[in-house]
Specification:
The complex is a heterodimer of chains A (about 80) and B (about 150).
Chain A lengths: L2 E5 L2 H6 L3 E4 L2 E2 H6 L3 H7 L5 E4 L2 E2 L7 E2 L4 E5 L6
Parallel strand pairs in A: 1-7
Antiparallel strand pairs in A: 1-2, 3-6, 4-5, 4-7
Chain B lengths: L1 E6 L5 H10 L6 E8 L8 E6 L4 H15 L4 E7 L1 E3 L4 E9 L2 H18 L2 E7 L2 E4 L4 H8 L3
Parallel strand pairs in B: 1-4
Antiparallel strand pairs in B: 2-6, 3-5, 3-7, 4-6, 7-8
Helix pairs in contact in B: 2-3, 3-4
Classes of the chains: A alpha+beta (about 80), B alpha+beta (about 150).
Chain lengths: ~80, ~150
């Protein structure tokens, strides 16, 4: 049983990894298991969240199930 | 005709454009835009990251939006991912239509939206190391032109 967090852009550098397997459960609980600096960076307004490839309107109330992939998407580069 | 791809290695924009043009014989106009890695002083490489579940689907949605807005016979969107050197092509967008105005507008529209709304993250390598590129305010202004 596991879910996956995916860190894009600069969040990958901050996390020190592109992906992390986590225990399924409420997002608050999952984030509580991460280094505090990373958890704070993941929850800022400018970071969008996608569950299984679909953008979410907000991060509240998310519970990860087995096999879920939750991606953290920082602002995209303009080029 | 839709040809929408993420490309992991070098590509030849001239060859791609020739192939696209040949696929839309009914079009009287083909407009294209090619973007390449700027040879800024100190930039040694550019790296473009994507998120597979969303990046290409986003490109397809953008192409559909353009096709609803203008009369198009074809849309081409090719975008590099991975690491590339200054001078390397990054993006090739083309629109084909019966008459030129639709192709001009659609190509411009697609580029403006690709720049600021596609799920791509860029970083560049300088002698000091890698640096993530931040969004530019001008990209938002460019997109706002389309209402």
């Amino acid at each position: 049983m596991s879910a996956r967090l995916v860190f894009l852009g600069r969040l990958e550098d901050l996390a020190g990894m592109a992906e992390l397997a986590v225990e399924p459960g409420p997002l608050e609980q999952v984030l509580a298991g991460l280094p505090r600096e990373l958890a704070v960076a993941l929850l800022v307004d400018r970071v969008r969240i996608a569950l299984n490839g679909h953008l979410l309107a907000e991060s509240g109330g998310i519970t990860l199930a087995d096999g879920d992939e939750l991606a953290f998407l920082p602002p995209v580069s303009g080029g | 005709m839709r040809d929408i791809r993420l490309i992991e290695g070098p590509f030849d924009p001239a060859e791609e454009l020739t192939r696209f043009t040949a696929s839309v014989p009914q079009a009287g106009a083909v407009v294209s835009f090619m973007g390449q890695v700027r040879a800024d002083s100190g930039v040694l490489a550019l790296d473009i990251r994507h998120y597979a579940p969303m990046t290409l689907p986003g490109f397809r949605t953008l192409a559909e939006t353009a096709a609803r807005r203008w009369q198009l016979d074809g849309v081409l969107i090719l975008h590099r991912i991975g690491e590339m050197a200054p001078g390397a092509p990054i993006v090739l967008v083309a629109g084909a239509s019966r008459h030129r105005r639709d192709a001009f507008a659609a190509t411009d529209f697609v580029m403006d939206h690709l720049k600021g709304e596609s799920w791509l993250w860029k970083r560049e390598r300088t002698p000091d190391g890698w640096r993530w590129i931040e969004p530019r305010a001008q990209d938002h202004v460019d997109r706002a032109r389309w209402g």
